[in-house]
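Open question from group meeting: does this chain pack into something compact, or does most of it stay loose? Before anyone orders reagents, we agreed to write out a predicted structure and look at it together. Recording both the input and the output here so the notebook holds the full record.
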Amino acid sequence: MTDKIKVGDYLIVQRQKYTKLQKFTNLNTIVNLGKDLVELRLAENHPYFTTFHLVPKQERGKRVYTLDALSTPSEIRNLKELLIKESGNDNRNIIDDRQSQALSTEEILKLREECESSSEVIGKLVENSKSFATKTEYSQEKYLKRKEKKYFEYITIRRPSVRLLSDIYWRLDPEKVLGVRFDTLSQIISYCGVCSVGNYLLYESGTNGLLPAAMLNSIGAGTGGKLVHMHPGNVAQKQALLAMDFPVEQQARCVSVNIYSVLRHFYQDKEASNDDSPAVEREEGINGTNKRKHEETDEALEATEPKQVKLDKQKQPWELENEAATSVMTEKFDSLVIVAKEHPQSILKALLPFVKSSRPVVIFSTSREILTECYVDIKTEASITYLRVTSNWMRQYQILPNRTHPDVTMSGSSGYLLTGYTIGN
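Structure tokens returned:
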């Protein structure tokens, strides 16, 4: 991980409040921001959090821009101070007849080509607006913000973080992260007690790598914590995990395995070790005469047949990952987290034996009824204590002088959590 932008990194491109995740695959990478195409070539080797000016390229029919790094973000001018000189007391005399702007659409498009900055374009629009000066200051600010959003020519490139990735995934499609909003994600991390020491078990079935990225981020670099990430498919979803660009040693402490494959591997190894013990006892019971006969036979075969070197079959990556996960499973885990599309009851029964006693268990589901069923089953089996079903409801507030209020449009429930602590196995 470096402090400078380089090819191969995942970047967060921010334009005002809009953010987008983009991989800087090569120097020809282009990011789409609405109708604008931005070339990232000149961003290489600049520090993260650098603000760039969008410089238009002369390409016919396309809005293509290159980047020019600003020495200080203060170069971005404050439109409110520049353009708001007088305001009206109220808007009662303003009529929305679509005739307040003197410039035509063609003239505005020509302005965009001729003016060097968005501030100049917006300034011209204000000069040619018949109603701007009579609006209240609040209405004028809203007008400027709306136009600035449309003509704003600056972007900031940021390093990916769990918060930014969570917000981006949620905004694009909540179903792609199984409905896990950032506030719910923070609750999962808090309840499971993941930290720099211990072994942690996660089962998730499709969050674009957001859950393992958040847990590995809490474990931290240069620590002894380990994470076994189980999933139902052949290949784990790891976009968020890769976007975080953790150090190699930190990434190595997160093992992603197929749940069915690793459980089969664990129990087969257990059976094999149990079968080896009786075999050793039988071998020790063989008398010395039979042992000498076997040795003589082996020597005769070696003398008559050419030596054959048996090469061990090279193990596949998934086999090595299964072995690494199995070794951690033998030590048992300090917490269990399940975030699944499927009904979590059978998954819980399969994984609960690998969790130490008095350790937290966290199960997420978008359905309260499913967790209620789990709650009843767990109560019957008495395997987990202090069971709680909770739901998060987060609402953001706008805090401004004389206009503080909650956001009118907001998302509803972000799913439900079933939490508790294991009883001695």
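Observations to bring back to the group:
The chain has 14 helices and 16 strands.
The first strand starts at residue 10 and ends at 15.
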